[in-house]
Design brief:
This protein is an alpha/beta fold and about 350 residues long. It contains eleven helices and 14 strands. The chain has an eight-stranded parallel β-barrel, surrounded by seven helices. β8 and β9 form a beta hairpin. α1 runs parallel beside α11, α2 runs parallel beside α3 and α3 packs across α5. The longest helix has 26 residues. It is globular.
Length: about 350
């Protein structure tokens, strides 16, 4: 089982100046965090795409290219690339270039995106939300599998015997599909034989079990090799040496970010009771001391059959030192303990 982290590049908000942290400062800190994740043995680093004032990253592949130069082993993926408002040709070229720079460590994680800012920014109609993703995922898969492409669709110019270059190491990129929990998205990924990652960021994780079972059924019925099946979850979390102290420290900034997002979606204000409920074994938050997090990852692995877990670790912009400590504990304590337990139970 692979264990890693993901980030969006959340920018800290200063209540006195009523302004966000400098993106330059956050990106410099992030490169230190990625370097540490590699050094402590984490398997994967993912970075998301947003086009909002509270996030520093709009182009994951540029961050990953920079990360490739300061890391040696860790896999580098988007988390996610909003494929609906991107050009699959350019997406492949960007990530194949990162793959070449990193020596074959790049992956792509594609999704439809839970934020919509990229659609008007790049000239796409939200009424085409589903059609755009379906068509572009098919095209990206074909580009990944074929050096020369002849293709015609609805949302992009026709391709007639076009080479898409450069090609990735081993002429292949791992393409994961990220979903929020809709059956149609799960079935699409399964039938295409693509790895699935489900974002579980609230509610009761056990409610997502039917989606994993649906994927497994559809994947096998489509004739794909069960030995190649890959399943992952992506959940918010932070690790600290003292769970109670971490909870007290982290709640205000976490709640502030949830409320910033929630105001545009009609959510009620985020409460301490929700936060603590999420921290419980049956909740979706991986915030606590190392042994608590180990137990929870193992619980989810058993429930879903996971091959990968990503802790999304910068919601609300925790302090750089707290992120560094979290990454250190995740790599030196949590990941080894999880893998040892899984080896013993095999």
């Amino acid at each position: 089982m692979e264990i890693g982290i993901s980030m969006f590049g959340d920018l800290a908000f200063n209540n006195e100046t009523r302004s966000f942290q400098s993106p330059q400062e956050r990106l410099q800190d992030m490169l230190e965090e990625i370097k540490l994740a590699d050094e402590v043995g984490l398997d994967v680093f993912g970075i998301g795409e947003h086009h909002r004032p509270d996030f520093a990253v709009s182009t994951p592949e540029i961050i990953l290219a920079a990360a490739a130069s300061v890391t040696k082993r860790i896999k580098l993926t988007s988390s996610v690339t909003v494929l609906s408002s991107a050009d699959p040709v350019r997406v492949y070229q960007n990530f194949s270039t990162v793959d070449l720079i990193s020596g074959g460590r790049a992956e792509i994680t594609v999704g439809r995106g839970s934020f919509i800012e990229s659609f008007p920014l790049f000239g796409y109609d939200l009424n085409d939300y589903n059609g755009l993703f379906t068509e572009k995922l098919q095209l990206l898969k074909e580009i990944n599998e074929n050096d020369v492409i002849t293709w015609k669709g609805k949302f992009r110019a026709t391709l007639d015997r076009q080479e898409v270059l450069p090609r990735a190491v081993n002429n292949n990129l791992e393409i994961w599909v990220a979903v929020g929990g809709t059956p149609q998205s799960v079935v699409r990924a399964a039938r295409l034989g693509l790895p699935l990652i489900i974002a579980i960021i609230g509610g009761m994780p056990s409610q997502f079990k039917p989606f994993f079972e649906l994927y497994k059924t559809e994947y096998l019925e489509a004739g794909h090799d069960p030995a190649k099946m890959q399943l992952a979850t992506h959940s918010h979390g932070l690790v600290g040496p003292d769970g109670k102290a971490l909870s007290d420290l982290y709640f205000p900034s976490y709640a502030a970010q949830m409320d910033r997002v929630g105001r545009s979606r009609g959510w009620a204000p985020y409460t301490r009771a929700q936060f603590e409920g999420g921290q419980s074994r049956s909740g979706a938050l991986f915030v606590g001391e190392p042994n608590e997090v180990v137990d929870k990852i193992l619980y989810h692995q058993e429930m879903f059959g996971l091959t990968r877990f990503l802790m999304h670790t910068d919601v609300g912009a925790p302090a750089h030192k707290d992120l560094m400590k979290s990454i250190e504990l995740l790599g030196t304590h949590v990941a080894p303990a999880v893998k040892k337990a899984l080896t013993v139970n095999q």
